[in-house]
Design brief:
mainly beta; 7-stranded mixed beta sheet; 4-stranded antiparallel beta sheet
Length: about 130
């Protein structure tokens, strides 16, 4: 079992950047596929980005963040990061990281993930 804690959220102006981190307990986080999801007020949770387990060589993004967000992992530090650039007001949401040891790559399907963090708020002002 693993516990996930997100950090790095905050208030930023449009065009700015934030770096979210997902820190995991346990010594085997490298064997977990990880995804980032977000939920805006009165909207359903949506997929943002995902990274495969181990070296993290496989990544995926929802279309709206391609070219702006970068997901990466540092297994030595038990973290997965989401670098968010050129932020837009529509990126405002609570961002959650999720993980699973059951598959190499979880992709965009939230039910693939077994463990979820509590979320971190990202607010982008116009």
């Amino acid at each position: 079992q693993v516990q996930l804690v997100e950090s790095g959220g905050g208030l930023v102006q449009a065009g700015g950047s934030l770096r979210l981190s997902c820190a995991a307990s346990g010594r085997t986080f490298g064997s977990y596929a990880v995804g980032w999801f977000r939920q805006a007020p009165e909207k359903e949770r949506e997929f943002v980005a995902a990274v495969s387990s181990r070296s993290g060589g496989l990544t995926g993004y929802t279309d709206s963040v391609k070219g702006r967000f970068i997901i990466s992992r540092d297994n030595a530090k038990n973290t997965v990061n989401l670098q968010m650039n050129s932020l837009r007001p529509e990126d405002t949401a609570v961002y959650y990281c999720a993980a699973t040891p059951k598959v190499f790559y979880g992709g965009s399907t939230s039910r693939e993930y077994d463990y979820w963090g509590q979320g971190t708020q990202v607010t982008v002002s116009s």
